[in-house]
Amino acid sequence: QFKGINKGRKTNIIDSMLRMLEQYSSNLEDLIRERTEELEIEKQKTDKLLTQMLPPSVAEALKMGTPVEPEYFEEVTLYFSDIVGFTTISAMSEPIEVVDLLNDLYTLFDAIIGSHDVYKVETIGDAYMVASGLPKRNGNRHAGEIANMSLDILSAVGSFRMRHMPEVPVRIRIGLHSG
């Protein structure tokens, strides 16, 4: 049986066992290295997603396992918007066309908010919510930041076209609350 394993070669059984153990060990080390790299990539994806969904300070606290205490913000301005006639547009579109519309529009919005002192709170369906004055306080600049951002978004939406219905203009409804 041993000659069969060694392909007919005459070798010392101990040498063969050691060689097989070394090969197994090497294969195991490669497998562990590969799995560790995969785990690190997944961890980076998770961290990126967490910081996109939550303010950086909250994300860090959650990763560290420390409790996140609620915080009161005295001065904040909120921006809300939605697409006028979104239900009708959705009814006249394929699901992937709706996804493309929202992805294109919110990619445009995300690029605009990057040049303002604001924080994107949430996007749900066609609703887009942004805040200024939190999670970083910015004194009394919050209302001006949101107002200027709103004007920039309105300007950009004026030339925005849906891929699948370029002849239909996209209009948005904007609401602001400051306090």
TrEMBL record:
Gene3D superfamilies associated with the record: 6.10.250.780, Nucleotide cyclase
Species this protein is from = Aegotheles bennettii
Q: How does it sit in the membrane?
A: Single-pass type I membrane protein
Q: Which residues cross the membrane?
A: none
Lineage, broadest ranks: Eukaryota, Metazoa, Chordata, Craniata, Vertebrata
- Which intervals hold domain Guanylate cyclase? 77-179
Q: Does the keyword Nucleotide-binding apply?
A: yes
InterPro entries (UniProt xref)? A/G_cyclase (IPR001054), Cyclic_nucleotide_synthase (IPR050401), HNOB_dom_associated (IPR011645), Nucleotide_cyclase (IPR029787)
Gene Ontology CC terms: endomembrane system; plasma membrane
Q: Coiled-coil ranges per the record? A: 14-41
Quick one: where is this thing mainly located? membrane
Q: Name one GO biological process term.
A: intracellular signal transduction
Which SUPFAM superfamilies does the annotation name?
Nucleotide cyclase
Which protein is depicted? guanylate cyclase
Under catalytic activity, the entry for this protein gives: GTP = 3',5'-cyclic GMP + diphosphate
Q: Give GO terms: molecular function aspect only.
A: adenylate cyclase activity; guanylate cyclase activity; nucleotide binding; peptide receptor activity
